[in-house]
Structures are given as structure tokens and as C-alpha cells.
Amino acid sequence: MQKFEIPYGYDHVSFQLPGEGPADWIMPPETAEAPDPQKVVGYALDHPVGGIHLADFAGAHSAVIAINDKTRPVPLQHLLPPLLERLQDQLGLEPEAIVLIVGSGTHVPMRPKEYASILPKSILKRYPVISHDSDDTANLVDLGKTEQGTPIQINRRFMEADLKIAVSVIEPHHFMGFSGGAKSAAIGLAGRSTITWNHSMITHPNAKTGHFIDNPMRQDVEEIGRRISLQFVLNAVLNLDKRIVKAFAGSPQAVMEAGIPVVRQICQVAVPASYDLVIASPGGHPKDINFYQSEKALTHAALIARDGGTVILAAACPEGIGSQAYEEWMEGVQTFEEVLERFTREGFQVGPHKGYQVARIAKRVRVILASGIPADTVLKLLLTPTESVQAAIDRVFQTSPIPERVAILPYGTSTVPLLQE
């Protein structure tokens, strides 16, 4: 029996595969973390790309920094201190003149008592922090529409600041192509109508992992970034252990152009042929904080699963589905074909779009979910629940045909398998 272990929540889950047949471990080559992450961040800030420097904003009396919420593994403890230090030393901005805004997008806004889960106490004591609410229309500014027709509604507090900054990570994104750059502000601090219209491009064939220049959804985000006058971004590139490898600072477009090739080197891996069974993990907390986030790993796992094959997704999901709108929309739906038909008929909605993404996958491969979500809730999503990864594996190997090719994807959200068939 072969024994394996993959990330699950804050810990790992172990399992065995029957027999002595090979199981392929799908993971890019290990990338070493930077020995001194804050030094790397400081270098990026002092050597920005895109011909723009923090010193160019001398005279600014206020600044806002868009940061990600708890669903993103952004090492703010390393990224923010060097940035805040330079804002004070180079621009003379005192802590009370700098506001950190949690860009929650359409996620539930973070509560103040949760801020300590993403920010160091030393920062919380000195700097004001607020969480964006995409449905708080009184605190949104209307800036017209993009060329794609997306209505631009953005956080009022953000727009009122002299200096607008976004801090995040660049990593693969299953329909935006890549996260990072302008996205943390353009989507994270946007109104629901902005996000809904932008994300409605999900059906475009280039709205998928690894596509940037030809991805209409991502390029719509770039335009929003320009229209909201996002002046400066600081982005990190992480290895699979969520440790900083490199950092880039400067103009949003230039940072993406510099960071994407590094992300490709770290995250992409060639896969010669598809598999009968893929056992995948999003990569542990916070990537599996709920199913809404964990589905990203399912998307990548399905890329290397054959038609009629099986994907076992091991995701802790301590916060359940992660979208009440998605859960309610699935009530009474019986088949994935019905999901696709209804989604097409009713038009794009944030939340139900997750059902559309899952349906596109699950009509082709069987999906078994090993999680902390109650079995009856998993069944409402039309997925197969299991009490454990091991139980799912045993069940798959007791049915015919027995899987001959098995892959294990331990960091599914951050790993982009490129099928060579």
C-alpha cells in the first residue's frame, strides 16, 4: 500500500492507495523562499517597475491601501511594514493619514474582530482599518462604464484619497487568468454591479487560468484600475508553501508584466497524459476556507482528469459553502444540465456562477468532496459527499473499471497542470 499526505485546513490528511501501481505527484519543482522577505519587499519598493516611484507622490496628504480579505494567503506582515515605513519617511504621511481597506468584493465584509487574522497587531494599533461592503451603495462612487460596458462603482473612501495603493499577491486565477495588480482594488473595492458585470465574461473561452492579455475579464479589470486612478501596487509572488519568493512594486500593468513570468515558472507543470483518478487539495488554509474558494483547485484538477474519470477534492471548508446565494440557487436543481440551462436563461449572477463552473466540470468527471460540510448540503450541490479521502478512494477502487492512472495534486489552487495530450 502506498501512503500519501496532502494539506487539509491547518493540518494534513493522509491516505493509502491500494496495490503497488504508480501514482504521479503533480507539483512544480520546489522554489526556495527568500531568506529575508522584508528585504526583498524593500528592494522592490526602492526599485519599482513602470517608471513610477513613491517619491513621485510627495505632497499627498492622504493614502489608502487596498488589501485582501481572509480568503487570500497574502503575507501582509512582510509586505506592509516596509511600505508604511516609506510612506512616512518619504512622503511624511502619519499613520492616521493612511487607511487600510479590506477589499472583500462580494464576500461577506470582515468584522473588526477578524482583522487580527490578516494584520499584525502593531499595524492594527496604529493605522485605521475598514472593510469594504459591495452593497453599501451610499459609500460607492459612480465613474461611468468601461469599454466592455461594466459599470464602475468604487469605494468612496478609496476615491477620496490622494494616493491610491493596492497590496496583494500574483498567482494563478481560474477565470481571471492571474490575481494581483489592479484586481485587489478594481474588484475588491467595487460595487456588486461592477463585479457582476465583469464576472459575467466567465463564459468567454479565454476567461481561464494563465490568460492575461487575451482575457477580456482581466483586461476589463485593467481598465477599471486606470479609471479609478490606482497609482501604485505592491505584489508578492509566493511558492507553494505560501512564502515570498519575489516582490514587485510600481505601476499596476508593469508589475503584472514583471510578475507573471515568475508565477508561470513556479506554478506550471507539464503533464503528459490525463488520469482516471485525481486526488486534489486546494493547498490548505485559507485556500480551503470554504467551497467557494476550494473550487479553484477542482478546476485545475479537472484539467488532467479524463472524461468519465473521478476527482476527489479534499478541502476542510470550515466556513461551509461560502456563498449563501450559490447555496440557495441550487435548491431544487436536479442535474448539471439543468444548472447550465438555468444559468444561461437567467443570466450571470455572482454566487450562482459557482454552480455554473462546477457544472461544466462535473458533467464530464465525477466529483467527490471530502470536507467538513454536512453531507446533505454537499448533495444539494449535486456532488458526492464522503466521510474521508480514504473512504472515497476505497469506493473508487471497488468499482469497475479500476483506475489505472492516478494523480495527486497537493496544491491544486496554486498548481497549473498543462496537459500535453
Question: How would you briefly describe this protein structure?
Answer:
The protein has 421 residues and is α/β, with parallel strands linked by helices. It is built from 14 helices and 20 strands.
Number of domains: 2
Structural class: alpha/beta
User: How widely separated are the two ends?
Assistant: 29 Å
Residue share in helix? 25-40%
Strand content: 15-25%
Rg calc: 21 Å
Number of helices in the DSSP assignment = 14
Any idea what the CATH superfamily of the largest domain is called?
LarA, N-terminal domain
CATH topology of the largest domain: Rossmann fold
Largest sheet: 6 strands, parallel
**Name given to the CATH architecture of the largest domain:** 3-Layer(aba) Sandwich
The residue ranges in which pLDDT falls below 50 over 5 or more consecutive positions are: none
Strand order of the largest sheet: 3-19-15-16-17-18
Q: What is the averaged pLDDT score?
A: 96
3D structure, described in words:
- The protein folds into 2 domains: 2-28 and 272-419, LarA, C-terminal domain (2-enoyl-CoA Hydratase, Chain A, domain 1, Alpha-Beta Complex); 37-266, 3-Layer(aba) Sandwich (Rossmann fold).
- The chain has a 6-stranded parallel sheet. Strands 6-5-4-9-12-13 form a 6-stranded mixed sheet, sandwiched between helices.
- It is built from 14 helices and 20 strands.
- The model has no long low-confidence stretch (mean pLDDT 96).
- Helix 9 runs parallel beside helix 12 and helix 11 packs across helix 12 (352-362).
- It is globular, with a radius of gyration of 21 Å.
- The protein is α/β, with parallel strands linked by helices.
- The protein has helices spanning 37-46, 76-91, 121-126, 156-160, 183-186, 192-199, 216-227, 252-267, 291-302, 324-329, 336-346, 352-362, 375-380, 389-397, and strands at 2-8, 11-17, 23-25, 63-68, 98-103, 129-131, 140-145, 151-155, 163-169, 172-173, 177-178, 232-238, 244-250, 268-271, 275-280, 305-314, 366-370, 384-386, 406-409, 416-419.
